[in-house]
Amino acid sequence: MKRLLVVLGAVCLVVLLLGAMHDLAPASVELHAAVATNLTASGVEHPVTAVLLNFRGYDTLLEIAVLLLALIVILAIGMDATISAEATVDVRPLVNPVLQTLAKLVVPLMILVAVYLLWAGSFRPGGAFQAGAVLAAAAVLLHLAELLPSWQSPGVKLRLGLAGGFLIFLAVGAVSLMQGALLEYPLEQAGALILLIESGLTVSLGLILAGLFLLLSRDDGETS
Amino acid sequence: MTGGLLFASVGVILFAMGVAGVLLLGHLLRRILAFNIMGSGTFLVLVALAQRNGIADPVPQAMVLTGIVVAVAATALALALARRLYVLTGKLELSQDDEE
Amino acid sequence: MSLEFAFDLLLALAMVWSAWRSLYATRLDRAIVMFIAFGLLMALAWTRLLAPDIGLAEAAIGAGLTGALLLDAYGALQRKKI
Amino acid sequence: MMVWLILLPLLWASLAFMLGPSRGVWLSIVGLAAQLWLAFALAAEIVGSGAAMHAVGGWGAPLGIDLVADGLSAAMLLLTQCIALPLAVYAHAYFKRDDPATTYFWPLVGFLLAGLNALFLSTDLFNIYVTLELLGLAAVGLVAAGGGAQQIAAALRYLFATLVGSGAYLLGVALIYGTYGTVSTVTLVSLIGADAPDLVWIAGGLMVLGLMLKTALFPFHFWLPPAHGGAPAPVSALLSAVVVKASFYLVLRLWIGPFSSLTVVASLVVWFPALLGTLAVFWGSYQAIRAERLKMLIAYSTVAQLGYLFLIFPLLASAGALQAGIMQAFAHGLAKAAMFAAAGTLIKATGQEMVAGLAGVAERLPVTLFAFGLAGITLMGLPPSAGFLAKWQLIELALSQQHWVIAFVVLVGGLLAAVYVFRVLRQAFLLAPAGSVVTPVPRTLEWTAFGLAAASVLLGLRGVELMQLVGVT
Amino acid sequence: MTFNELLPLAVLASSLIPGLLIFTLPESWVGLRTTLNLSGALVKLALVLLLIVGVQAGESYGVHFAVLPGLNLSFKADALGLLFITLSAVLWLFTTLYAIGYLEGAPRRSRFFGFFSLCVTATMGIAMAANLFTFFVFYELLTLATFPLVVHRGTEASIRGGMTYLAYTLIGGAVLLTGIVWLHHLLGHTDFAHAGIAVALGSAYDGQLQIIFLLLMIGVGVKAAIVPLHGWLPQAMVAPAPVSALLHAVAVVKAGAFGIVRIVYEVYGIEFAQSLDLLLPLAIFAAVTIVWGSFRALFQDDLKKRLAYSTVSQVSYIVLGVTLFGPIGTVGGLVHLVHQGIMKITLFFCAGNYAETLGIHKVSEMNGAGRRMPLTSIAFTIGALGMIGVPLTAGAVSKAWLIDGASAAGMDWAIWVLWTSSLLNAAYFLPILWRAWFKPIPKAWPAEHIVARGWRETAWLLLLPPMITAVMTLATGIFSNNQISPLSWVKLIAEREYIHESIIWTP
């Protein structure tokens, strides 16, 4: 019964939407034009970055909050480590030493790529998210090569790294609010401020994204 | 039909598949997969429909970047809960009987 | 029908098919691999939609990180079952 | 001023996280007190000088995001902070030092409040999506934190419901952006006319349905009782009192904002939420009357009380309907927070989770039972209480628009509420069975619940200012 | 805020504040609790006296607060309200005294006296309400405040009684609320006024007003225990004796009866109500209640249950008086509001004394009680004779006015109803008196808790209140024409309600 209803509803939705999308009048507001007009005032040259960190920077601020929040929730559940009583057997094959060597070689390279992406974000595709993701990938690689253990409970330095990017963003927001409007950058400092925020975010995003992985893998029992 | 409308249609189909999956599938990992497909569908509609005339619009693109990060946060959270449930009960499904 | 549109259509079909498989594949590991493939196809679609930023992010986060998280969860499941 | 209501909780939440596990209590309480002051100041300001607007980044909609504090949002902000502060004090006394639920309790609460406050102020549909996710994930985290299998299962159910809800909402936003090229509600009001394309109708339907799922409106209520009934008492209180109302607020905002011309065209549409609301009142009350666990009873009562909120939709033609809705939101918010808090104290003191195990608490824990009773008065809509004023307004509106059925639902709903409230009180007034023990509980637990309950009753003696605030546009 | 605005609030506060304070007192602080109780009651009495003097001198007392835009919580102390206020304030003092004696050493007294005070506060609110909204607020407050008193003993039986009480009163409240909101919607306000407010609407609304009247009467009829809405009253007998006194004489049923009076005279206006044909159906219900209550009382062996059915019957005398169109009937009904209270409280005090002292709960256990407890039994006898309507008692005065009112209104059938009821009253009260005075003392009382010391057959705090109220029963009967008697006051009220009638004042 439920199955039938859901499938029927889904099919109806698809049919209705496809029908309704068919001949749609052009949109009355053209934001891409507005973005192009205001791009010079945004402090960056790449429109997506301009939207992300300036025109709709507030969205991004909240989004980082969501990400940090997810990490905190993962920390909050299962802190009492009542992992099931039966012994968990680690049947993972021994780590290939080649992988370890490779990881040691590749990781510095990945960090370099991340820095490039971050810097490139201001005028072409790239930016803090992509850079952070690369950093996180590096951490995951290290973990797979067993060069980086799963996290149990992050220490104070790690917590600083996790929340630091967000706090910098928040601080910029607070200062700008005191001087006028939230996340309103003075024209001449816009570029610098965005770079500052992005740098902080790259590190924190990398750590948080890596943290999501490293925290989730802690239940495996291999490190506990 | 432009490429924009084509991908918007794909987005709609993906959304419908995803929602049906979240509602109907039993296994938690599959439901999480379904949620991601639902999300991807929505993102496609957001960008593709706005760009149906073929002009790139950075605003929905930025929104989707935000959305992807939010989705990965939700996915990680869901996985953490699912794995926790597995550790505690040895099951990866929500029983139906405690629903009412 | 232009060549570009034909490619888009093919891509669209591949996306729907991979999504379908990742939902309803009988084996969970196949489903997850299918999902990663889906993510990569999505990344391709994003570049076709003039959104290389999202393409990058999708590949790194959508397919990469989410895939890794899912695979790791699956792996943990398998290890515990033994 | 309004922006600080968003930044402040974000700030203390992340600082509390930096301080480490189980830390940051006082930081949070000070932050919440500051927020309460800000909310009052904001309300006073806009009553004096009309709705306030803040263009984030200085760009202004539709390029940027605008925050607007009008009567409706200021009232919701006020309600949220009014409930959060006492509950924080309650939570501090409630959790034991080493309770696993507290490790990251305060950061989660902070993010939750930031999400709420941001949601109430936002006028940007996509930004609202982000706030919804912030809110939803924080709420799920609070339900799950430190819990056992049942709590985790409830949290998962809640998570999927909230994700599907916001997914449907986001698809609606995508369709709206596709149609009009903007997501600013202010801009959309003038764009969406009676002749809107079908796509907008579908978008509206998706958004409203998604939000109803998040509000746990019948028949989407399935996730609420296990989540609210299973979480620790302060969390249940916070979730039941304000979190579910956030998505109701959004439905209302959309309904009277961007989609107002649609709802005028299709006059039958207004009966859809009211119908679900009616069913919610009856079904929720019925389940509450049958519930054996005290907290489940209260959780089902939330399902029922949320139904009242949706009864205002057919009445929105008169200005008073909004006021009635906000009055009901205040009444239920304060009373439900008090009731969950009182229930938490009762359960903690007696060790009994069942309604049947409450015999004798009237004598042993009079303050807490009084709090429960006062909160019950509000839920039943008996005078003098905010719930009564809401009921009065609803009935009068219903009569003036000749919607008898709504008046009937409100009255019968009140009586059904009496049945489940007095089911508890009846048990409490019985003599304690021999050998039952009551562990002493901190005074703070008893009096915070009492304070909230008293507020829900006293508001019934003076609702003029609140109504004046709601009227600000 | 002027003195005239403050005084009604002070009357409310004189029981509210002691009540709230008492809640916080530890169980063992008997002295302070008693002081608070009695000083509250005395202060209230003094304030009421001030009001009486003022109202007689033509002062008007009132105050209002906006609750919502267009909705006021308003109070006034007018002649009609003062009638009820004075009755409640005086009887509250005695009931408090009695309760202090009755509950000596019992558990949960702080809770008891706290709610006791809240009850009286609610009653004062009902009496001073200047519109239906305010009336309803306190009417429901009264329901809530009495519930903990009814279930005070905490036994299954008392809880069941309490739940029955709630079921009736809450449903009644919902019906009442419907009527009030409806009226408020039509009129834009519900302020009481001499000669009514509903007449302003015009004849197009007659149908709606009739329905509203029905709703309002059902709402207040529950508390006034009009058949068939009376089922809760005998059930609530499980409560301790002071609570029964409160329910039957001071607060609850009186609030219902008073509500009927207010609605008929000051919402609809007696003349308008008559023109809408509302009075006759109400009179018929009252008549049925009078006979049915008396009839059921005949078959009750439980003393308090017999008294309860007697209340069902007697309260409807008030209602009947109200419906007898004409000032004489009005006087009869209103004066019975006071007289019934004084007589019925005497009877309940005495019943409580029998139970507390000797363990007597049933009529069949009353043999010889008069010899063992002469003072109590004298008081009981006076009360019972008053209920029957024997001359020189308060009851005789009300009955005389009611009968004259009925014949003046041309409703001779009502006279038959009153006579039938009197006969039935005699039939269920006289056997009790006969047993008490003329049957021999049994070998052992059911449970003798208190041993007589000299003339003090029981604790003096239990003895004093019924004796005083018994004296009052006689005094209000004998000195009914004195200018400070309830009867004189009631005549003052009746003069104001009939604006078109020339009033003939000789019964």
Description:
The complex is a heteropentamer of chains A (224), B (100), C (82), D (473) and E (507). Chain A is an all-alpha fold. Helices cover 68% and strands 0% of the residues of chain A. Chain A starts with a helix and ends in an 8-residue tail after the last helix. In chain B, helix 1 packs antiparallel against helix 2 (28-50) and helix 2 runs antiparallel to helix 3. Chain B has 100 residues and is mostly helical. Chain D has a domain at 268-473. Chain D has a two-stranded antiparallel ribbon with strand order 1-2.
First CA to last CA of chain E: what distance? Answer: 44 Å
Q: What is the share of helical residues of chain C? A: over 70%
Strand content of chain E: under 5%
> What multimeric state do the chains show?
heteropentamer
Outline the biggest β-sheet of chain C.
none
Task: Return the string of H and E elements of chain E.
Answer: HHEEHHHHHHHHHHHHHHHHHH
Q: What is Rg of chain C?
A: 15 Å
Pair with the biggest interface: A-D, 55 and 61 residues
Work out the number of β strands of chain E. Answer: 2
C-alpha geometry of chain C: flat
Give the mean pLDDT of chain E.
91
> Number of helix segments of chain E?
20
Mean pLDDT of chain C: 90
Q: Counting H and I runs of at least 4 residues, what is the number of helices of chain C?
A: 3
Compute the number of strand runs of chain C.
Answer: 0
Unreliable parts of chain E: none
Main sheet strand line-up of chain E: 1-2
How are the SSEs ordered, and which strands pair?
The complex is a heteropentamer of chains A (224), B (100), C (82), D (473) and E (507).
Chain B: H1 3-24, H2 28-50, H3 58-89
Chain D: H1 4-19, H2 25-49, E1 52-56, E2 65-69, H3 71-94, H4 105-121, H5 125-144, H6 149-180, H7 185-191, H8 198-215, H9 224-230, H10 233-256, H11 260-265, H12 271-290, H13 294-310, H14 320-350, H15 361-364, H16 366-380, H17 386-400, H18 404-429, H19 443-458, H20 464-470
Antiparallel strand pairs in D: 1-2
Chain E: H1 3-24, H2 30-56, E1 61-68, E2 71-77, H3 79-102, H4 109-128, H5 132-150, H6 156-187, H7 206-223, H8 232-235, H9 241-250, H10 252-268, H11 270-275, H12 279-298, H13 303-323, H14 327-358, H15 369-372, H16 374-388, H17 394-408, H18 412-438, H19 460-478, H20 486-497
Antiparallel strand pairs in E: 1-2
Helix pairs in contact in E: 1-2, 1-4, 2-3, 3-4, 3-9, 3-14, 3-19, 4-5, 5-6, 5-10, 6-7, 7-10, 9-10, 9-14, 10-13, 12-13, 12-18, 13-14, 13-18, 14-16, 14-17, 14-19, 14-20, 16-18, 16-19, 17-18, 17-19
What can be said about this structure in brief?
The complex is a heteropentamer of chains A (224), B (100), C (82), D (473) and E (507). Chain C has helices at 3-24, 28-48, 52-81. By secondary structure, chain C is mostly helical.
Keywords:
heteropentamer, D: 473 residues, mainly alpha, 20 helices, E: 507 residues, two-stranded antiparallel sheet
